[in-house]
Structure formats: structure tokens, C-alpha cells
Amino acid sequence: MAQETRVLLEKLGTPDLLTVKGYRAAGGYQSLEKALKEMTPERIIEEVKKSSLQGRGGAAFPTGMKWSFIPKNSPKPVYLCCNADESEPGTCKDRVIIDENPHLLIEGMLISCFAIGSHMGYIYIRGEFHRGAQILMMAIEEARREGLIGKNILGSGFDCELEVYRGAGAYICGEETGLLTSLEGQKGYPRNKPPFPAISGLYNSPTIINNVETLAAVPSIIERGGDWFKSMGSEKSTGTKLLCLSGHVNKPGVYEVVLGQMTLREFIMDFGGGIPGGRKIKGVIPGGSSMPVMRDEDLDVKLTYEDIHAAGSSLGSGAIIVMDETVDMVEMCLLLAHFYEHESCGQCTPCREGTRWFVQVVDAILKGEGHPGDCDLLLDICRSEFTSICPLWVAAVWPVRAFVTKFREEFEEKIRNGKYGKKDQPAAMAMAG
Amino acid sequence: MPSMRETCPEKVEDILRRFPQRKSASIPLLYLAWEVYGYVSPEAMEEIAEILGTSPADVEGIASFYTMFPLKPLGKHHIEVCTNISCHLVGAQPLMSHLENRLGIKSGERTEDGRFSLQSVECLAACAWAPCLHVNGKEYQKVTAENVDELLNSLD
Amino acid sequence: MSQTDVQTVTLTIDGKEVTVPKGTTLIEAARQGGVFVPHYCYDPDLSIVASCRLCLVEIEKVPKLQPSCSTPAADGQVVFTQSEKVLDARKMQMEFLLVQHPLDCPVCDQGGECKLQEYSRNHGYDDTRFRFKRRTFAKPDIGPFIDLERNRCILCSRCVRFLDEKGGNAELAVINRGNRSFIGTFQEKPLRGDFTGNITDLCPVGALTSKVTRFRVRVWELKDAPSVCTMCSVGCNVNLQHRNRTHEILRITPRLNSDVNHRWLCDMGRFGFDQFNSAERRRAPEIRENGEWRETGWAEAIGEVVKRLKAVRESHGGAAAAGLIGPRQSNEALFLFQQFMREIVGTQNIDHRTEHEIKANDDGFLTSLALGAVNRPLEEARRADVIALVGSDLPNELPILRLQMREHSRAGKKILLAYNRPTRMDKECGVFRYHPGGDAAFLAAVLHAVVKEKGGASDDVNALLGQAGRDDALKIAQIDEAKAAGFAQALVAAERPVLMLGEDAFAGPRGVEAVRLAAAILDTLGARHDGALALSLLPTPVNARGAADVGCYPHRGPGYEPVGAPGRNTTEILRGCIDGSIQALVLFNTNLLEEYPDREFAQKALQAVPTLIVADAFKYETGDMAHVFLPLSAYSEEDGTYTNFGGRVQRAQRALPQLDGTLAAYQLLLALGERWGAGWRQIRTPRIFEFIAQAVKQYAGLSWDTLGGQGVTVPAPPDEAFSGAAPAPDAPLASLNGSPGGDYPYRLVRGRRLFDRAGEKRFAPPLVDRSEPCAAEIHPGDAKELGLSDGDSITIRGEKGSAPLTVKISSNTRPGCVTVLGHYDGVPLNALAAEETPWVNIQR
Ligand SMILES: Cc1cc2nc3c(=O)[nH]c(=O)nc-3n(C[C@H](O)[C@H](O)[C@H](O)COP(=O)(O)O)c2cc1C
Ligand code: SF4
Ligand code: FES
Question: What sign does the CA torsion over C739, C742, C748, C749 have?
């Protein structure tokens, strides 16, 4: 049976980990010292590239490559933004680092700032993390007192400030450009790309946005080397990954594993301790609510980014949501459609209007008021997936399309048994409103 | 009502000092308004607009974009129940119904005595410890229709 | 930028090669290549958000469609705006936009002008697959001008961006998020900006429409008449949209003229048109006999006027007659007026300056011409890097110039604004505040500082400085030396400074002095371009410049030619009425009792004069005193030319036939000349303009046709018109420091307001709705001393009269002053104290 491999969560449980002293006692801040005193920014980026670390926020973009997009000798300040918005349903991993090992994140951010030439890092944390924000602020305060943040860090001559910025209830602020507009004090409206944040991001300056888990992986890469990190996992899915297991499992939780050592089903069954009541699995969302749902028969896929991708879904943020045979898939689809409708920023047409339309159609089907063509209508609305400003609309399309295609019979059955089911055409179009 | 600059000038100044561009202070100032007045009042939005050199409409637009900011007073105990997928799968709906029955209000409402307000919210990132709810921002995990009364009774 | 620096890119759009400057967006590149890409959120004058997603185009080798409004054209790009993929995406966006849209086209005021209707015909689905409840929102009341129907809104945010970036204080915002987003004002309060009407032009659908026009007409019934706005001297280009059947002007929309107003209008100009439709307009001449008014026909009325004027001429000589004409008439009427008075009645007693006491015939404006001022505010502001404004509450005087100042300020130009109270544009400017009445003193203080910075000045300038000592200047203006020096330093540092003087400065009691000081400042800076001094004056009445150009002065005729023996100016004429030396007074288009700064004096004069002829569209209180009242048609009913404050001569074409029973001012004048037997006969405007072009040197060569739709800017009058000599300065500055008498310790300041009930504005109900009540604004310190609080009733008493007002405490008013904003229509303020001794007291 596969085991956890704890790298990011390694120090959890050591005493006083929330303090600089405790974290240092457990070996913390040595990577920072090494990075500042023994390495150049170029070397650090090189090492991160070598590790093949992929962003843990959902898009799995190679971190080292992203960093290298920052223009050299920019006349404007460079910013690092840590994405601690953690709002993708099913995802609850970053908070473990924030709540229990905040200095790991701080250390990772300081090293990353040094690497990209930034002297200012912001942690954009979702507003609902009241406690997490407190913990981070206190940790930063203490680190500052200890000379780890501020001027001339550890006598290296490197200056760097960190600041916590609290969101206030908006999933879209996890999208990187929405995060930036929010941090600029506006509505979290995503921006058109290009320009990409690395060229023009926060305050129109070069900016790197990385997920908490991504940044938290940096100290270990510095400590033990990119080659060591890459030696774990598969060719493309290197290092360890935090997985959030929720829904119908006996032991939900956040687990740190090396990818490629097991199948998705093995992970669910071994780590999750099986399905309550020994029931059967009906579907699994493998990477947070935006990712296409998979059917039970597809779960014997190797748990790596590339294999799940090949199976038509994505590991996304690493949030695995398990639904057993009792679940009504139309209801699940509606739940998620509702979520995206609620969270669409409303700026661009397809997303603002499409998310609402999804809700209306799926809701009608669930209530027994679906029309015979509704599944095709839903799929047709999905055709506009790549016409929006930001990927939220894509994230809204994928689950709907997946639920409708993978569980179409459930949708059709509800339509058939509903008000308009028996007839070929609806008698009267209910043109309300 | 005294302004924030009268009530807590240091806090206002401290917030403004933190950002290279003044506008970034908008969300922190909205939080401050919430803290000072118990909700984000129209007067507070006007004051924030003045502090930031923007318009009150702009501030209202921002405040209303973020679902956490209360534009009306909340109950003394503001209960937010996650009804998103992971919580839903393990009993968020019965939990919500139970709360609605027990408090006699629906999501988005406040009890007449002002003690409780109830809101169903999107995923609170506690999926592995579901179902979950917040009371005035404090998180409670694995709260079910069966054990929530205990929690309610412990609130004064 | 030299020619070679301009980089271009060449790309292919729909198979056609297009070369455009680097940085051009695809949507504009396509337009230049003759391809129109449908769009909603994009507007070339606003920032780009690329949110409607209608303008998506396909670019070869780029996997996803890209918004053409925000994607820069690149060399070698191959772009398709009509490919299958593009058309499909466009169709989808249209469907998305239509699903929530109400199907209320038959009752929507945008019907006929709606981009949603238009594009859905061209790109949309034939039917809707949408069968659910449409989104609905509350309908708020956002003021008298604009109707907001949120259910029709497609959230393109043009209105929000316009009011943020151009013409307002970000009064609109998108409230809420996602699907629940809607456009709104703060807490649903009414819009209070000055340019809100422009959002009705920008709104591509029927969400924002004119409340003033709403339900009165369908757009396809409206006809356009190209005209210019006559509400201020900017002379914005407009279309007078009218319906002949009901003889109504029903909408005013901007007409593109990038040298003047571009495509913007202020709300005063846009929503004031009901004055033309007003039932208050007079429709028959009237004669007053034994105190009784009697309506009559034109033949009798004209005969009566001619009879009376001839009688005066015969018994007392032509010089016993006088004529005043408001600077709001067309050039044609103004020209004929002075021609009629001079050549037929035989008098030089002519003036158009009805709003000030005239002390010297050569006033501030003429002084500026004599000193070689360029007087082209719009162009000069565009070319300058530092713009200094003194004595103007621009937002309340010349709104569109203010709008452009905002653009200049956003473009990084420095704007210095010196005025006696806060204005609505302070945020965009470096602000300098001086005491009311201290305009000239402020300029003197600045001149001292400029000379100090520059280390010397010409003899003339030194002589001027001798008369205006630095300490006096600082004391009268109540300004720090350092502040004045700051103003001076910004001017000295400028590469191309311009100085603009508002009416408070150049037309007030120390106008000539202010202009001389301003000119001295610019001379010391060496701020001359092509020989012209970088000085522009900002008169506000629509045709102040035209009235001057065509010779409505007692001492200067058309083209500023001096006349032999000067006649009497406004003040002298009124004095003549009182002392009996003036026996007949002809007033055209001036409500003298309201306009002249000393109401008591004007009233005495009008009562005394044995013959008073008043011609106007409305009767007003002045008309009530006449012996013969002649109803004029509105400017919308006659062709005419108007010369804006920068010397731009523009055509205003008539929209409607004359209201029955009225005559155009020029027709009336021609009829008077005809009846007199002077050989005049009725001719049309273009022909009158030919006479003007012959008589006014700077207009030589112009004709009605060559003016075209966009007007022509005329040069400043030649130096010889002034024989090279500038008028002598007024008395030394120190005399300004008139100390308030013990009985009247407060200075009464008449502030300006765009939306008040002055003049014809009172006949446009929407403007009246928008206007705010008058109050006496008092400094908090003074209020405390007097024991007054907000809303208290008080009486303001001056030497000449008193007025009841309510108190408004505000530090916008300086200590020792009481400010009344806008036209006060209880007891008029000009009835309290004279212009030069504005002292009053405050009583409970
Ligand atoms: C709608 C939406 C929501 C997102 N939410 C989050 C989030 O909550 N946390 C996060 O780290 N990334 C989120 N992302 C991904 C970010 O846009 C971005 O890719 C990521 O923060 C980059 O960091 P990484 O390279 O370290 O993964 C979201 C993306 C989208 C489109
Ligand atoms: S896709 Fe949705 S969330 Fe993203 S910009 Fe458009 S409306 Fe906003
Ligand atoms: S016009 Fe380009 S997205 Fe709206």
C-alpha cells in the first residue's frame, strides 16, 4: 500500500513550528541562508528549472520557466504575489501550509523574490481565512524582528518586504490577473492577456504569481537540489504533491504523495480508506471542481498530471472529490453550475450570460421541466468556451460538458420522465419574463 | 456617526502606508469600516471614497463585488454554511435546513432579535473536514445537523 | 517625431493588405481597410476593456480568437473577420446578449438607433432558444436628464468609463458581480455631473436614454439641423433634432467637430432645448398704452417703433437714441443692429456689454486685442504644456473647455487654477486661491514673482509694477508670497505656457489692469508664438466675440474700426436715460434688469426713458417696462453665424420655421430699415454674411458656403485697428482695497452655477429641475461669530436693497464674505449692492 512522502508537511508536528525559533530548530531558514549567501538568482532559477516543478495552483505551468520571463534589469519594481486564494471547490491544501507551517511559505517567498529580483512580495489570501491571515501576519512580524524580512536579510545585502492582503469573498481573485486587480484595490476583474503579468502585472510592473504550495516547495529544492526533486515522481510530475481528498470516502484529508506511484483508484481506496458503507463509486472529480468528472471505470489511471490529462481530465489543484452511487449527477452538475454563476465576475459576455443559462437549463432538467433538446443545448453553449477574457468560463464549461457527456443517460431520463418528456416538442414554450 | 479618521486615525494611516498605490487600500479600508461600524455603511463608503480620491459609486461597486462585505448589519452571530460540493456530499443540506428551522430564517436573513444571521456560502476550503461552517469568521469542522445544536447553545 | 520615427506595420485583413502605424489596434486597422468589426464595449475615445467579446477575430497561427479592439496589429499578421469560426463566435455572443434582454423594442426609446437590433439582424439567431425568466432589476430615478433601464443594459461599461475618464467624477459604477451586476449610482442617488448626457450617445442599446426626450418622439420621426449650441461661447457643434409637425425641438445631439467639442456636449446645452418649445414665448407684438398691454400685428408694431424713433431723431437728434443688444444674437443680427442704429437712426450709442458697469470704452477684451493676445483657448490649450487659468470657475462657465482641461491633465499637462473659491476641477489642477475681487492683485503678485525669477523686465513692465506694488498685491489677493512664486515658477519652467483669464478677471472692475498684468507676465516669459501673445480670454456669452467683431461698441465699428466721435456705452446710456439726454432706448435680446450689475440704476433708467423698445423671445421683467414689445423667433428658427470665443465663425442652420407671430432679429431689423424708407429690404442670412465679410476685415473672403459645416477661425484684428496703443491702465491697484463700511462688513460674492435659472434656462423645465436652490454660503468662523447654523433664515442687506436667504455653512467661502451661487430669483442680487462696492451685512 502506497505511503505518504512528506516533504512540505515534513515538519508538521514539531513543537513551536509557528515561531521562527521552532521552525529554525526543525531546520528551517537554512535554504534561505544558502540561497542568499551561496547562490545567484540565476542559479536558483536554474535549480528550479531542473526540478521541473510545475505550478500547483491548477494550471501546472513550469515554475522555473515562468520566472525566467521576468525582464532583466526592469526599470520598474518586480513583484511576487503568492496566490493563497484557495477557492477552487474541493481544494484545502494551501491552508495546511499557512496554518501549520507559515515560515515555510515565507522562506519560499523570500528565496523566490531573490531569484526574480523582487523586493516586495504580497500574499493574497482569501478573506475567509481569518485565522490563516492572522498566523501569516504574526509570522511575518516575527520574521521581520528576526532580520529575515526587511533590510539586509541575514546580512546578505538583500532587502525584501512581505505583506498580507486579504481578499473578501470572490473565487475569481484566484485567477492570477483577477488577483492583481483585486490587490490594486479594484473589483477582481481579470485582464486580457497579453500583456502577461511577467511583463506588466501588479501596478503595471513585472509580476510573478505562484501558488502557496509551489512556493513552499522551493526551500526543499534549494536545500536538496533540483535533481533530487525531479528524481521523485514521473517524468512530468515531479516532486511531491498535496492531494485533498473529500466527498464519499471514509478518511478524507490532505495527503502528500509522490505522483506516479499509484493509480487514482488506489489513492482513493488506500488513503481514503474506501467508500462509506462499501458503496460503489459513481464519479470522481480529480482536480478541483473545474475539472471534468471521471466515471468509475476510468479510475484505474496512474495518478500523474500527464496520465489524468490523457484520460480527458486534469489533476488541477489536486482536489479529488469522490461521489458514490447514491449521488444524483444532475444535482451535482447544478451545484457546480451555480457556483460558477455566483463567482463569474460578470465582465465578459459568454461567462456572465452562459453561467446563468447553464443554471437555468440544468435546474429545469432537475425539476422535471427539461426539454428534449436540452442536453444538446447545454453542449452547444459549451462551444463558446474559449471566447472569454479569463479561464473562469472555461472552468464553468468543463464540468457541465463532462457531466452531460459522461452521465447523459441520467439527464435524459429526467427529461423523459418530466413534464415535456413524452412529447417530441414542448407544447408551449414557457416564455416567462 | 464619527468617521474612521476620527475613531481610529492610526489604523487608517497604517493601511495607507502599506501600499505603493493608494487605491490598494480600498479592501483593507472596507474591512476597517466593517470592524468599526459592524457593517459597511453608506457613510463609510463615502469616507473611503474621500480617502482614496475616488467616487462613492466606485467604492460601492467594489464593496458589492466582494460577497463578504455586509452592506446591511449582520446578526450578532453570523453563521456561514458551506453548501458547495464536498460539504454537500456529506450533509450540508440537512445542516442548512436544520439551521433554517431552528433559527426561523432563511439564508441571507437575520433573526428579529438580531442575534443570528445565516448565509449559505461557497466552498470554504475545508473540504476534507466537511461539513463546515463559520461563526463570525471562526471555523467549525464536521458540523452536522446532529451536532450543530451543541454549537448554537454554546453561543451567547 | 520625425517622419522616419513613425513605424508602420503591414498586415492582411480579410485578404486585403493594410498598412497602419505601429500600436494601432486590429479593429481600427480593419476600419482603415474598410472592414467594420461589430463591437459594443469598444469606443475609440475610451479605455479598452475588451469585455463584450463581439469583436473577436481569427488570426492565423493563433489558436484562440482574439478581441480586435485590444489586439495590436503586427507585421505580417493574417486576420479574418468573417471566417466561419468568427461568425459562429459572434453569433454566440449575440445570443448571449439577447437571452436576458427584454423584448420591449416597441416601447424602447433607442428603437431605430439600437446596436442590438442592428447586429442581431446581421449576426444573430432568428429565434431564441431561451425560455426562462429574464433577469430584471429595480428601476431607479437618477435625475431629470437620464432614464436608466437596467433590464436593457448589456454591461458594456462605456457609460462607466466615460464618467470616470472624461466627463465626470465616476458617478456610475457596476454594482455587484456576475449576473447580478448592474449599472448604478452611489445608493441610487441622482446623477450630478455636467456631462451625463453623453452617456446616452455612448450607450449602444436603450439602457440609457434621454429622459427629456423620452416618450415624446420615435427617433425616425426626427430630422437633423446642423447647428451650434448657444448656451456658452465654446460653440459646440450640435444637431437640432426636430419634428416639424409639432414645431418642436426634441433632442440635441453632438455633431462631430474635433476642433471644438469633438463629440461631447454638456448637459446644459443638451437638455435646455425646451426653451424653444416654451409656451411662454410671445407670439404677437404688443404695445403698451396708458399702462395697458395690447397685442397687435407686425405692421402696426413696426410702424410704431419707426414713428417713435423718427420723432426722437427729429426733435432731439439721432444721438438721443441708443441701442443695446445682448451678445447672444447671431452675427447677422448684431451687424444689422449696429448698422441700423448708426446709419438709419443716426447714433453711435451702441453697446453689447450689458453685464458690467462700463468705465472705459476700451475694456479688458479690447485691451487684450491691442496687446496682441492670441485669444484661441481651445487650440492654445492643446499646444501648451502648462495651462494657467486665472479668475475662471471653468466648470460653471465653459463646460466643454473644462472637459478638455481634464483630458489635458490626464495627458500629463500641468494646469494651474487660480480662483477665489474651490471649483469642480480642483482635483485635476494645481490650485491657487485668492480673495474675491483679487484677480488683478493676484496677477500683480505673480508678475512680481516672474520678474524676480527672470531677473529683470522691460521698462513697460517695470512701470506697471510701480503701480502695483508687491505688498499691496499680496495683501489684496490675500495670498502668500510663496504661493504666488509657485505659480510663477511653474510658468517659468514651462516650455509653452498659456495664460487664460476668466470673466471675473478681465471683465470685472479691474479688467483692463488684469489683462495688462497678464500680458506683462507673458511678455516677461517671452511667451509669444508667431507674434501673438499666449493670452486667451474666456468670455461666456455665446456671441461675445461676434458682437465685438461686427462693431457693437460705441467707439468702434465693424472690424474694430474707430468711429469718429464715440457714442455712449451701456452705463452712459443708462445715465442718459435718467438725465433725459437719451429719449429712446432699443433693447434687443437683453433682460437688462437681470443682467446689469446695478438693478436700481437700470430700473430708474428704463422707467425714465420716454421710448423703450424691447425685442426678445421672452418678455422677462425688462420687456414688461417697454412701450413696444417685439417677439423674436428662437435661434433654432433662423439661419445665423456665431463666432466662438476663439474666433471660430460657425453656421447655425435653422431647424424649424419661425413660430407664428415672431420674427427673426435680422428680419425685424431689415423690416425696420425698410419701413423707415432707408432702402433696406428682406434678404437672407448668407447675403447678410456677405456684407459682414466686406465690413469686417478679418472676415474678408468668408462666405456662408466657405464656412462649411465645421466653421472657420478668423485671425485677430490687425494692430492698426488699435493704433498700436493699449488703453491706459486703471487707477493704481491699491484703490481696490476698498475697506468695508462699518454698516456693511461682508463682501457679497456672486458665484457661478451651470444649472441655475438665469436667462432662458428658466424656460427649460429639466434645467430647472436640475438647478439647486440658492443659499448664502458663509465661512464656519463667521457663522459661529454670528451664531448661525445651516438652514437658518437670514436677510442680506446692502446699500441698495435686501434679500432673504438660507444659510449654508462652508469653508468654500472665505472669511468676511458671503457667497451666493447662481441666479437668485427672489430678490435679485444685483439689487443689493453695486459691482464695485459689494458690501452687505447679515441679519437674522
Ligand atoms: C477561475 C480561476 C481560479 C483560480 N483560483 C486559484 C486559486 O484559488 N489558487 C491558486 O493558486 N491558483 C488559482 N488559479 C490559477 C491561477 O490563475 C494561477 O495559474 C496560479 O496561481 C499560478 O500559480 P502556480 O504557477 O504556482 O500554479 C485559478 C485560476 C482560475 C482561472
Ligand atoms: S470569463 Fe467570467 S470571470 Fe473571467 S473575465 Fe469573463 S466574466 Fe469575468
Ligand atoms: S469591442 Fe472588443 S471586446 Fe467589446
Answer: positive
Q: Is residue B72 part of a domain?
A: no
Indicate if B81 and B144 belong to the same structural domain: yes
* Domain's final residue, options B40, B65, B90: B65
- Min Cα distance B59 → chain C (Å) is 8
Domain count, chain B: 2
Q: How does pLDDT run across A354-390, given as a tens digit for each residue? A: 999 999 999 999 999 999 999 999 999 999 999 999 9
**Which of A343, A364, A389 has its CB closest to that of C51?**
A389
Which residues' Cβ are closer than 6 Å to ligand 2?
Answer: A 172, 190, 344-348, 351-352, 388-390, 392-393
CATH assignment at residue B23: 1.10.10.1590
Q: What is the ipTM of this complex?
A: 0.95
Global pTM value: 0.95
On whether both B53 and B89 belong to a single domain, the answer is no
Q: Which of B37, B65, B93 is the last residue of a domain?
A: B65
Asked if residue B145 and residue B99 are part of one domain, the reply reads yes
> Is the CB of A335 less than 8 angstroms away from the CB of B88?
yes
Q: Which of A192, A346, A377 sits opposite C181 (nearest CB)?
A: A346
Residue B108 sits in a domain whose CATH number is: 3.40.30.10
**Binned average pLDDT, 10 residues per bin, chain C of 844 residues:** 69 96 97 96 97 97 96 97 96 90 83 84 69 90 96 96 92 97 97 96 95 90 95 97 95 97 97 96 95 96 98 97 97 98 98 92 93 95 97 97 96 97 95 94 96 91 88 93 97 97 92 94 94 96 97 96 94 98 98 94 97 97 97 96 98 96 97 97 97 96 96 88 61 54 87 92 95 93 96 94 94 94 86 86 92
Q: Is residue B59 located within the same domain as residue B106?
A: no
Query: Could you tell me if B149 and B82 lie in one domain?
Result: yes
Residue B17 lies in a domain: yes
Same domain, B92 and B142: yes
> What is the extent of the structural domain holding B119?
77-154
Chain C positions touching A337 (Cβ under 8 A) are none
Examine the domain organization and report whether B12 and B54 are in the same domain.
yes
Alpha helix positions (H), C169-275: 198-202, 267-271
The alpha-carbon gap from C302 to the nearest alpha carbon of chain B, in Å, equals: 57
